[in-house]
Design a protein that fits this description.
Layout: H1 19-25, H2 32-48, E1 51-56, H3 61-69, E2 73-75, H4 77-86, E3 91-95, H5 98-107, E4 112-114, H6 123-126, H7 130-138, E5 144-148, H8 153-157, E6 161-163, H9 168-177, E7 182-185, H10 188-198, E8 202-204, H11 217-226, E9 231-234, H12 240-243, E10 248-249, H13 252-261, E11 266-270, H14 276-282, E12 287-290, H15 307-310, H16 314-323, H17 332-357
Parallel strand pairs: 1-2, 1-3, 3-4, 5-6, 5-7, 7-8, 9-10, 9-11, 11-12
Helix pairs in contact: 2-3, 2-16, 4-5, 5-17
The structure holds iron/sulfur cluster.
Length: 367
């Protein structure tokens, strides 16, 4: 089956968002009084509209602070989904990328889900069109379909399981123990890492995150020589040559925990640099170094920061709340099918947490 390849620097004829389009929509930097005024306005509106802000670790630091200061959350995509579902607010403002807003809507159809910019998407989502993916699945009916959270609602609707990087290892291990063969999509690096760790039979889609795909093993090796005491923290969406050098491989939450609880003074971090904001807040005395993305003459599309995450800004939150723009919708038949694979994951992780708390199973380590 032929997979569609995207040129993420160019706008596709069908209007799909590219990095150039995304960078052009990233809000201009604001001075301190402007930021403070917008933050105050957004906080007032969140309260007045009974809304809650659910933000990802990769978005702008002001948005992360606003979420925490107003009773919302800053977290990875698994916790964002749980929090939005369980919170009493009837309006969720999701600061992240489109699949996160869709997941919130799938889980809470009765709630209004708004996003600062509906064009904020993800290379993994773009690189796995539902029609091609369905054909891929249909060609391998003997396999259990496991998709990463970073996919459209339509792709989730074709899947048996959704996973995030914080529970993928556990879920694939459990499926392997049941003798299941797996069809995995879309991130090839995360898929390879899970395959290596679990030994599961996995057929892979060939997608990648444009941010993590750019981390370079050779340059990381050179950087390590300059910082021999540093711990290397790597998100598993990174290439194998980078993962191989890691002291800790994990989800965004796991990498933050590693900095907070680690005894080292220096940390080289291979994930989107938006995460450094929260790491600095939680571990103020520690030195954080961005992992290298390219050699001297190379160019990069993201340089360790996701252009689609960067599209989220304070003004966008104010616009959502003031004018009701940026509302996410998911067709009901698609939503119902996609819900099944997300709920399967949430039920699995809730049960696993209970068993781990009771000491019945060891934690096998979050991806
Ligand atoms: S950082 Fe990568 S995986 Fe995350 S939204 Fe951006 S492109 Fe997608």
């Amino acid at each position: 089956m032929e997979q569609q390849l995207f040129d993420y620097t160019r706008q596709a004829a069908d209007g799909q968002t590219c990095t150039a389009h995304a960078w052009a929509k990233v809000p201009a930097p604001l001075n301190k009084p402007e930021r403070e005024a917008l933050k105050r306005r957004a906080a007032e509106l969140l309260k007045a509209r009974g809304a809650v802000l659910v933000a990802h670790y990769y978005v702008d630091g002001d948005l992360q602070d606003l979420a925490l200061e107003t009773g919302g959350i800053v977290s990875d995509s698994l916790e964002m989904a749980r929090f939005g579902r369980d919170h009493a607010a009837q309006t969720l403002i999701v600061a992240g990328v489109r699949f996160m807003g869709e997941s919130a809507k799938i889980l809470s159809p009765e709630k209004r889900v708004l996003m600062p910019d509906l064009d904020a998407t993800c290379s993994l989502d773009l690189g796995c069109p539902a029609e091609d993916f369905t054909a891929f699945c249909d060609a391998h009916p003997d396999r259990t379909v496991v998709v990463y959270a970073n996919t459209s609602a339509a792709v989730k609707a074709r899947a048996d399981w959704m996973v995030t990087s914080s529970c993928a290892l556990e879920i694939v291990s459990a499926l392997k123990a049941e003798g299941k063969k797996i069809l995995w999509a879309p991130d090839r690096h995360l898929g390879r890492y899970i395959q290596e760790q679990t030994g599961a039979d996995m057929l892979m889609w060939n997608g990648a995150c444009i941010v993590h795909d750019e981390f370079k093993g050779l340059e990381l090796d050179l950087l390590r020589e300059q910082h021999p005491g540093a711990q290397i923290l790597v998100h598993p969406e990174s290439p194998a040559s980078v993962v191989a050098q890691a002291h800790v491989v994990g989800s965004t939450s796991a990498l933050i925990k590693a900095v907070v609880e680690g005894t080292a003074q220096e940390y080289i971090v291979a994930t989107d640099n938006g995460i450094l904001h929260r790491m600095r807040q939680l571990a103020p005395g520690k030195t954080l170094i961005e992992a290298p993305t390219a050699g001297n003459s190379a160019t990069c599309k993201s340089c360790a920061h996701c252009p689609w995450m960067a599209m989220n800004g304070l003004q966008g939150v104010v616009d959502c709340l003031e004018r009701g723009v940026g509302e996410i919708g998911v067709d009901e038949p698609v939503r119902v099918k996609a819900l099944a694979c997300i709920e399967r994951m949430l039920d699995f992780t809730a049960a696993l947490k209970q068993r781990q708390a009771a000491g019945l199973v060891p934690g096998i380590g979050a991806a």
